Amino acid sequence: MTDSPVAPPSATPDPGTKPRPRVGTAVSKPASRVKMFGVPVGTTVAGAAVLAFRAWSKRRAARQKKIAAPPSPPAPLEPSETQALGSAGDGDISLAAPVVQRTDTSSAPTAPVVPPTADTTESAAAGDHAEGHDTPESPNAPEASNDSEAASDTQTPTPTAPPAPMRAADATVAAQRSALRLGGGQKRIDAQHARGKLTARERIERLLDRGSFEEMAPYIQHRHAGFGLEKEHHPGDGVVTGFGLIEGRRVAVFAQDFTVRGGSFSEVQAQKVGRLLESAATAGLPIIAMLDSVGARIQEGVWSLAGFGDLFWHNTQASGVVPQISLMLGPCAGGAVYSPGLTDFVMMTRGSSYMFITGPDVIKTVTGEEVDVETLGGAHTHAATSGVAHFVADDENGAFQLTRRLLGYLPSNNADDPPDLEPDDRLTPNDAALDQLIPESAAMAYDVRDAIRLIVDRDSFLEVHEEFAPNAVVGFGRLHGRVIALIANQPTHLAGVLDINASDKIARFIRFADAFNIPIVTLVDCPGFLPGAGQEHQGIIRHGAKIVYAYSEATVPKVSVVLRKAYGGAYIVMSSKMIRTDVCFAWPTAEIAVMGPKGAVSILYAKQLAAAAPGARDAERARLEGEFQAQFNTPFAAASSGHIDDVIYPRETRARITAALEFLKDKQPASLPKKHGNIPL
Predict the structure, then answer these.
(1) Catalytic residue of the set 252, 570, 638, 660
(2) Distance from chain centroid for Cα 202
(3) Hey, which of 11-15, 19-23, 38-42, 517-521 has the most confident mean pLDDT?
(4) According to the 3-state scheme, what is the secondary structure of 498-542?
(5) Other CB atoms within 10 A of residue 42 CB
């Protein structure tokens, strides 16, 4: 007789399968095959006695053999089942597999489920027959006890504790896992907390959905000797890697553990992180790095340096394939800074995170310059001056919340679309207020963020690089739930002109949006490029060309709206029709020309103004500027030549952009075959 398989631990049967009978319920068979205690029903009394005796003898011999052999399976039988073995015969009654009830084992090891043997199933069947049928028992069969009735359909197999070897293994695993959580030891954990910082695992738990983290390679250790390395081994070697969920979306994450040798980057760290990045890129998962390290592990020499090179290579390969976000939660010095520099977004925390290639001591030694750590590489420095940091959070919890929000605008990979939301009319702004936004005087400024907030869904705008190059504004928003990338000139700072930093800021944001299928909306109010010898000598030509290249290269849907000024080269580079923007709108207040009326009149009518009487020169200039404004600085002049698709009321902006993006949503990129272009870096 073959043992019945154990049913899967599910309370709901598969709708595609036939329901199984309860435990202890016999399956109907022809009368000629139905047996009781090993005796076919309908056999004569004498024959039944003989058959029953043979069956009993066979059972007794088998039981004695079992007693002499080592116990198998390890799970002991219940007393009722042991007694029933002496009364049951070798019947041929088929039983349904028992349904094992599964309990919550999240906090304890699961005991192995032992399938019922032929002995237990037959005893249960015998008890069922003895209770439910009126067939007389054979006089030679042993009397069935009341305990045999306990093996009825109400009984389920009882899970048993694992054998001793497994219990020892469980204890070993528990001890190893406990050691993992200690990292470099409780003393160093306390020191990390004293600095107001979390440990690597605490950070992962705060960032990810509760209970979703799956760690990879937790027990790997370094393989180096010298300088005391051979005496100090920590599982994981200072970095925690794995996968988890953020708002139900899969992400790859790694966190450096400062409690293990200051989070110093090692050969093993490079191996762990490299494998994670490779897996994330091939699986199409965003990568989130939490960095807290003193830099390369000096004791490993060239091996740690080679590890950095491997990491940089993986960052580069993943670029444009999956979003990469770096959270700077502590120091990051030397070559280590190039990894976050290669990622898409860098987030720093005030007062606790620092980035620099050479520290204050080295700078003082080499140049004699004295500078403190915060001034050299603190959050404000990199957010406002260098532009390395895209976001700044007040503390680590703020950084985690901001990261989760940022991820809500990004697709998981370059083959995916951004995570749009269902349209909600309650999020529609008061776009009628746009009609009152532009001041009457062209010399007066206004905050372009007000225009953005009156166009996109309410409270959906997330600004990127807020403190860097404030004459340009970039960020993410939604239109009727659809994610868009917004780029705008800011009249409140330098009148919205383009300079070196603004050019770099805009170009990089365009390339990210294009890489990850996010439509680009541009709001233009720019009087031109910033003049001056400093800008020219630092390469404004080269940096301004980056904007031209980025817009021209982008294949996502592109929509622009000229709000007010669009002069000279700035008009061309800010998403004009000539560099293949799909739809170009203009407000009635738009001024599209080579330059403003004042500059144009000074050039075009220089002789005429010089010949005018001194007392009438100002009036003549005013008259000429008015004529130039009426003839050239009107959106209808550009519209009549096809450079503007339509002149719209400001209050129509949200609806017209939405309609344009809907029209362009299936846009397919088309470009000449090439390996890649040569952007003017």
Answers:
(1) 570
(2) 17
(3) 517-521
(4) ECHHHHHHHHHHHHHHHHCCCCEEEEEEECCECCCHHHHHCCHHH
(5) 11
For strand 391-393 and strand 345-349, is the pairing parallel, antiparallel, or unpaired? parallel
To the nearest 10°, the Cα dihedral for 151, 156, 161, 166?
110
Q: pLDDT, tens digit, for every residue of 406-418?
A: 999 999 999 999 9
Catalytic residue among 569, 599, 637, 655: 569
335 catalytic? Reply is yes
570 is catalytic: yes
What number of other Cβ atoms are within 10 A of residue 351's Cβ? 13
**pLDDT tens by residue, 637-652:** 899 999 999 999 999 9
Percent of the chain having pLDDT more than 70? 71
| SS (HEC) of 610-649 | HHCCHHHHHHHHHHHHHHHHHHCCCHHHHHHCCCCCEECC
> Could you say which architecture CATH assigns to the domain 425-595+634-664?
Alpha-Beta Complex (3.90)
Measure the CA–CA gap between 557 and 280, rounded to whole angstroms.
28
| pLDDT attached to residue 4 | 41
> Taking CA 91 as the corner, what is the angle to CA 88 and CA 92, rounded to the nearest 5 degrees?
155
* Given 89, 91, 334, 378, the catalytic residue: 334
Report yes or no: 160 and 110 within 8 Å, Cβ to Cβ. no
Q: Supply angle C-alpha 273, 277, 280, rounded to 5.
A: 135
Helix (H) or strand (E) holding 64: helix 45-68
Instruction: Write the burial class of residue 192 (CB in 10 Å: 0-12 exposed, 13-18 middle, 19+ buried).
Output: buried
Cα 511–515–521 angle (5° rounding)? 60
Q: Which fold has domain 186-407?
A: 2-enoyl-CoA Hydratase; Chain A, domain 1 (3.90.226)
Domain assignments of the chain as residue spans, ordered by start? 1-99+113-157, 186-407, 425-595+634-664, 597-632
334 an active-site residue? yes
Comparing 54-58, 119-123, 425-429, which segment has the lowest mean pLDDT? 119-123
Q: Evaluate if residue 597 carries a pLDDT over 90.
A: no
